[in-house]
Amino acid sequence: MNMPAASASVAPAANRTQLRVGLGERSYDIVIGPGLLAEAGARIAALRPGARVGIVTDHNVADRHLGTVETALREAGLSPTPVLVAPGEKSKCFAVFEEVVDALLAARIERGDLVLALGGGVVGDLAGFAAAALRRGVDFVQAPTSLLAQVDSSVGGKTGINSRHGKNLVGAFHQPILVLADTGALDTLPLREFRSGYAEVAKYGLIDNAPFFAWLERKWQAVFGGGPERIEAIATSCASKAAVVSRDEKETGDRALLNLGHTFGHALEAGAGFSQRLLHGEAVAIGMAQAFRFSAAQGLCAQGDAARVEAHLRSVGLPTRIADIPGALPDTDGLMALIGQDKKVSRGALTFILARGIGQSYIARDVDPSQIRAFLEVERQPS
Ligand SMILES: NC(=O)c1ccc[n+]([C@@H]2O[C@H](COP(=O)([O-])OP(=O)(O)OC[C@H]3O[C@@H](n4cnc5c(N)ncnc54)[C@H](O)[C@@H]3O)[C@@H](O)[C@H]2O)c1
Ligand SMILES: O=C(O)C(=O)C[C@@H](O)[C@H](O)[C@H](O)COP(=O)(O)O
Ligand SMILES: [Zn+2]
């Protein structure tokens, strides 16, 4: 039985950053800082007192953080039911989607109740899509626990799963009602995963914030080290994303800039079988380096800028070349077929995010496929 909220007050804390995604009646807060998972109950009960909460999470995150969240929810008079999935990109598929939806229905998550996505971007995208579909839509809260999820996937309402035809091809725009980014959770995140998320942080600098990219070049060790710079990088990233999403929720215009590095990156991720061989942020790092190399090869941006992008990504330990991906990949035709399924394709015409320089990315529509093919042929040669 659902219980009324016992106590739904949250003590104001100095070490919190709060941002708002302005979307009219779908507006919501992003709260960033340490210790937020322990406050999840009070913060969620303040929005939906007495709700049942289906907590979708993966085994890695459950082992480390589920207990804190369940206790917090119960203490606030909420009724949690955990729904566990296997960690990793392969869980963003139809079969696991069905399992999650079934488990949420079995837990009697009704309209007026909530889904809580506790984990990285895989859990966020999967749980968000389940929430969008369940009973034609229930509310959901994002509690991102990876760097990638805290700076990118928990904000903006893109939810979905992969198909055999490619990445994120089935999904819905469904905004969360709250994002709780507990920066303390990052203390348990493996280094490779932190690096992967860092690629999306660097992306915001490369899109339209050259001073932020320069700041990251100087401060990246502190961001990795966990000092105040880490929270600053997360907050700057979320502010960038919130601003774009508020302007263009459904990517009819400049939200596509957030796809910098993703047209190449998604094809490589799919080509590597959505496996541990290539994490999403690693694919984006290669894709961003490629977008800058392609732009430089077309005379659109200085070679020096492309070199600077690659140097920074490599300095933090991210891959920047196809040759950095272990194992076999599809041939160039295969990669072109995957690129042809990109959601930015319109009537067969390719759209890429290209750059006139660092912080000067732009949307290039109707890019000549033969130029992309020729570029990929060169990129595939071992250096
Ligand atoms: N919806 C969007 O706007 C958007 C944006 C960017 C990326 N994405 C998607 O996000 C996914 C990638 O997200 P990700 O990099 O977070 O991957 P992920 O969800 O697979 O998480 C990375 C790994 O870290 C583990 N993990 C997460 N938090 C942890 C913690 N605090 N301690 C220990 N382990 C932890 C997970 O179990 C997993 O093994 C991709 O599917 C990508 O397409 C979506
Ligand atoms: O939020 C967006 O918009 C983005 O493009 C953010 C990307 O980092 C993210 O990987 C997103 O899921 C890609 O979107 P898609 O529409 O290309 O699937
Ligand atoms: Zn991404």
From TrEMBL:
InterPro entries: Dehydroquinate_synthase (IPR050071), DHQ_synth_AroB (IPR016037), DHQ_synth_fam (IPR030963), DHQS/DOIS_N (IPR030960), DHQS_C (IPR056179). CDD domains: DHQS. Keywords: Amino-acid biosynthesis, Aromatic amino acid biosynthesis, Cobalt, Cytoplasm, Lyase, Metal-binding, NAD, Nucleotide-binding, Zinc. Zn(2+) binds at E200, H262, H280. Pathway: Metabolic intermediate biosynthesis; chorismate biosynthesis; chorismate from D-erythrose 4-phosphate and phosphoenolpyruvate: step 2/7. It catalyses: 7-phospho-2-dehydro-3-deoxy-D-arabino-heptonate = 3-dehydroquinate + phosphate. This is 3-dehydroquinate synthase. It comes from Ancylobacter vacuolatus. The lineage of its organism: Bacteria, Pseudomonadati, Pseudomonadota, Alphaproteobacteria, Hyphomicrobiales.
